[in-house]
Each structure stands twice: as structure tokens, then as C-alpha cells.
Amino acid sequence: MGKIDTRVWLVIIAATLFVCLAYVPAIVREGDFGFAVSDVFLYESMINGLLLGGVLALLSLGLNLIFGVVDVVWICYAEIVMLGMYGIYYLHSVYGVPLPIAMPAGIMITAAIGYAVHHLVIRHLLDSAPINQLLATGGLLFFFQSVATLAFGIDFRNLGVSLGSFPLTDDIYISWSRLAAFIVAAACVAFLYLFLTRTFMGTAIRAISQDREIMTLMGAAQGRLYLISSAIGGGLAGLAACLLVLQYDVHPFVGLSFGPITFMICVLGGLGNMVGGFIAAFIFSELIALGGYHFDLEWGYVFAFVFFIAMMFVRPEGIMGRRS
Amino acid sequence: MLTLSNVDAGYGTFQALFDCTLEVNAGEAVAVIGPNGAGKTTLMRVISGLIPARGGQMDMEGRDLVATAPHRIVELGIAHVPENRRLFPRMSVEDNLRMGAFVPSARAAFSRRLEFVYDLFPRMKERRHQFAGTLSGGEQQMCAIGRALMSEPKLLLLDEPSAGLAPVIVQRIFELVRVIREQGLTVLIVEQNVQQVLRVVDRAYVLEAGSIRMSGAAEELAASDEIRRLYMGL
Q1: Which residue of A has its CA nearest to B91?
Q2: Among residues A301, A275, A208, A292, which one has the least CA distance to residue A64?
């Protein structure tokens, strides 16, 4: 009961914060309650925050999956997304491969990178101190950035595809690429949930994240499950790359604009807890969107990070985390 | 069925087992008894491959266990019910049992095995959708034994099945050992509850400070003054 009560309180606190952040600045600025609640731009920001949350949720899901199973945090996860974005960009814009083929190919590339990262690096560090594992995946981050800089240069590249936008109401316009990103991310989250709960392999992946030693007793080769999870995690990075490449320019450091935030979402949700990460993704995206609306875009990130630091004091194990 | 000769094992620089020789014949129930820290759990872990043997030979029905990869040992017919049960706490009872049938042969026979386990433990069927972590201690032990039985083993390794359970439940767990034997399984059981375990096994080994100190028929050991004084407080 104690645990449930804490969670209920957290929801109430989060909802209050949300309402304050959404309405109070506008009411203070305008001095008028009625205007604030009918402010269409505010609602547009909220919707955009929700749409951004879908992609962040997808990213945090991949990172959480790998962490939950292998127990290693891939600091370089967003850089795999960056490589996926380059893959799709080159296939489509340089080699003229149509997007419906370039995108699955991008997912295959990042799944292979995920497989390789585990096979070539992580596998040899499973018994090392956690700090060494972090340093190794952190090193991969710089490695991937440098490789991308050498291979592709530091130019910002754009797919040059615009899906346009459509009016939701007379005043609120929604970008198709953002909506598509949200829908695909949500579908993928649902699909992954079904995979993990309804299939034998998915159940085995959940089991190994709860007790890795015992799965050996059951007859599971740990290495194989680790490789499968790493490849799925890599593939999810590729899927995120498909969605992000439609909205953002590609450059070797693009990972930095969502890597740290993905990592914080996972920690806020409780590392390895996919449901927690899912919820945290939307908390972060709304904080960013609303902060950005009321002040400047950068302020949105400031609010998100301050909220994160404050939560680390209040609940260091994360929203859905278990105290160990 | 299972033979260990001169097995050494340990963790890091610490050696936990010295020169252990032990045999379990098909159809037998054998206990390993001894004080805390004698190496009983280590012995079980060496057999199921969770820690490597540093010396000596182990074989199961003529197959070399030392040379078998840890995750392949269950395929030889050895199922290990670990100390503290070690269920997957945030998974349903049925998913726990499903993982017990991980090896391909058992996966193919999953529904038949599941029916077998549910017949043996009707309580598990009632609780099949419940998270294993929410079961009572006795039910968790049943679930852990059920999970081990899912792989259709020939030899069941039971590590301290009575630990942490109320006396009434302990009775029931030892009763289960009897039931499992009736199913034709061979049992190797590690216990601190010496008095009770000697009632359900045929033979026992006494492990002290990592070495086998004595062995004999269960009634003999139960009657021995030394065992009674050291382990039964009589």
C-alpha cells in the first residue's frame, strides 16, 4: 500500500506542476484567466509536446530494454540513432533509394550496429566494474561521432522531404512528420509490449532481466539473449532514426540533442523499467514544450533538467523504480 | 546416475569444496547435510554448472559435466531448485513455469508438462496468473519445484527447500519430496533441517568445511550419537 500511495502522490504532484506550468505564466502575463485557457498556441504546444514524447518514449524504450537485459547503459545509444539517420540520408538522397526501402534498410543497419556493439565490446566487459562499462560505451559515443565526422563531414544534411502539416482546428496546425512519428512510436511501443508479454522469447527476455543467473539454470544461453536484445535495441534506434530524419538535419553531433535527455528519461522512470520510461518521456516532452512556449525553447530544457535534478533528490530510484 | 570424484571448487581465492566424492544412484533420494557455510550450496552450484569445478571429475549418466556448458546441463536431465527459490518475482506463476520448459525438448512438451505440474500442485493452477513474488513462502517453493520439473528432469537438486518456512509448511515440503520420488525422480537434497530430511531420504553425506566427513544410510546417521549431538541438538 505504501508504494501505491507514493505513486498516487507523484501523479498528483506532476499534474499540479503541469497545470501551473501550462496556465499560470499565461494568466500572470495576460492578467486574464479567460484568455489563458482559450489560448490556442498553448494547446498547440501541448500537442507538440505529446508528439515529441512518442519519439522520446521509443528511444528510452530501446535503452531500457538493453539495460534491463544486459545491465549495461549504452551512453552511445543516440549516436547509433545518428548513424541510422546518416544511413537513411545516404541511401535516399545520395543513392536515390526510395524511402520505403531506405528506412527498413536503416533499421537493419542499426540493428547490426547494436549486435556488433554487444559482440565486439560489451560481451568482453560483462564482468568488469560498472564504471568501466560506462567508460567503454562513453568511448563509443566519441568513436561514432568521430567516424561520422570523418566519413560524412560536419555539414548539416537534410533529407529534403517535407510531409507538410494539416489543420486540426482553424488555428492549430499539426506537422504530419511529427504525427507520423508519434503514431509509429506508439505502435512500436505497443508491439514491443506484446512481444515481451505474449511470446516465448519476450518472456525469456523479461525473465533474464529479473534474474540472469537462473536463466542459465533453465537452459538459456545468456549470450544469445543478450545479442538478441542488443539487436532489437539497435533496431529501435534505427526506427527512431527514421522518424527523426524527417524532422531534423543530420550532423555528427545530432545525438547530443536527444542522447542526454533519453538517458535522463530512463533514470527518471527507473532504469530498466519500460513503463516508467514511457511515462517519464511524456513528462519531459511536456516540460520542454510548455517551457519553450512560455519562455524560450532553451528554457524548456532548463525546466526539464531542473525537474530531473529535483526528482533525483525526492525519488532517486525513479518514478516506477524499486528501492533495492 | 550422478558421480562426483575429487571435486574442488571455490570463489576467487577462496576454496569452498575440497576433494568431494559423492554418488547418487537412479531412483535414490540422497541428502547432503552440514552446518552453515560448509559448502552445501557450492556443491549444488558446481553440479549445475553455475560455478566451474577447479579439479576432479563429474559425470551424469556417463556424460562429462565439467566439459558441458552451464546452460546445457539441464538438457542432461539435471534440474536445480536454487537456494531462496529465485523465482522471477514480477512474472506470473505460469510464465515462471514456462521458463522452466526453456530447453527445446521441454518446450515442445510444454502443455503436457504444465498439466503434470498443475496436477502435482493444484494450488499453482489456482494462482497461475498471479505474480510469483506475491506468493507465500510455501507456494513459492512449490512454484520453484514446479519450474524445475517442467524440464522433465531425471535428477532434481533441491537446495534448502525448507529455509525460511513455517514449521507446518516445512512438513508439507518434505511430504512433496516423497511425492516427487514416487514420480520416479532421483533427488539430491541439501538441508539444515537434518532431523526431518533424514526421514525422507535413503542415504546422506555430511559436509563440513568443504569436505565430506561421513556418509551412510539415513537411519544409521539418524541414530548416530555424533549427528544427533551436532545437528539435531539432542
Answers
A1: A207
A2: A275
Give the residue, A15 or A110, on which the prediction is more confident: A110
Q: Which residues does chain B have within 8 Å of residue A213's beta carbon, measured at their own beta carbons? A: 50, 86
Dihedral pair phi/psi, residue A173, rounded to 5°? -105, 135
Q: Is A195 at the interface with chain B, CB within 8 A?
A: no
- List chain A residues with CB under 8 Å of B100: 218
Distance, in Å, from the CA atom of B113 to the CA atom of B116, rounded to the nearest integer, reads 5
The Cα of A32 is separated from the nearest Cα of chain B by a number of Å equal to 50
Give buried/exposed letters for A220-253 (b at 16+ CB in 10 A, else e).
bebeebbbbbbbbbbbbbbbbbbbbbbbbebbbe
- Give the Cβ contact number of residue B171 at 10 Å: 13
Q: At what angle do helices A176-198 and A274-294 cross, to 10 degrees?
A: 160
What residues 172-231 of chain B have any CB closer than 8 A to a CB of chain A?
Answer: none
Average pLDDT over residues A288-294: 84
Chain B closest-CA separation from residue A204 CA (Å): 7
Instruction: State the best of B85, B102, B129, B157 to mutate against chain A, taking most chain A CBs within 10 Å.
Output: B102
Instruction: Annotate A256-323 with DSSP letters as a single string.
Output: GGTHHHHHHHHHHH-TT-HHHHHHHHHHHHHHHHHHHHHS-HHHHHHHHHHHHHHHHHH-TT-SS---
All three cell numbers of A285, joined, read 516532452
Copy the grid coordinates of residue B105.
525438448
Identity of the residue in A200, A211, A220 whose CB atom sits nearest the CB atom of B88: A211
Span A110-164, pLDDT tens digits: 999 999 999 999 999 988 898 999 999 999 999 999 999 999 999 999 888 778 8
| Residues A151-206: tens digit of each pLDDT | 999 999 988 877 888 888 777 888 888 898 889 988 988 998 899 989 999 999 99
Q: Give the type of residue at A187.
A: A
- Say if CB B218 and CB B31 are below 8 A apart: yes
Nearest residue, CB atoms, A204 vs list B49, B99, B147: B99
Q: Does B48 touch chain A (CB under 8 A)?
A: yes
What percentage of chain B carries pLDDT values higher than 70? Answer: 100
**Overall residue count recorded for chain A in this entry:** 324
pLDDT in tens, B69-97: 999 999 999 999 999 999 999 899 999 99
Residue contacts between A and B (CB atoms, under 8 Å) = 58
pTM value is 0.84
User: Would you place residue A324 in the very low, low, confident or very high pLDDT band (cuts 50, 70, 90)?
Assistant: very low
Instruction: Residue B114: name the closest of B95, B131, B133 by CA.
Output: B95
The answer to whether A207 contacts chain B (CB < 8 Å) is yes
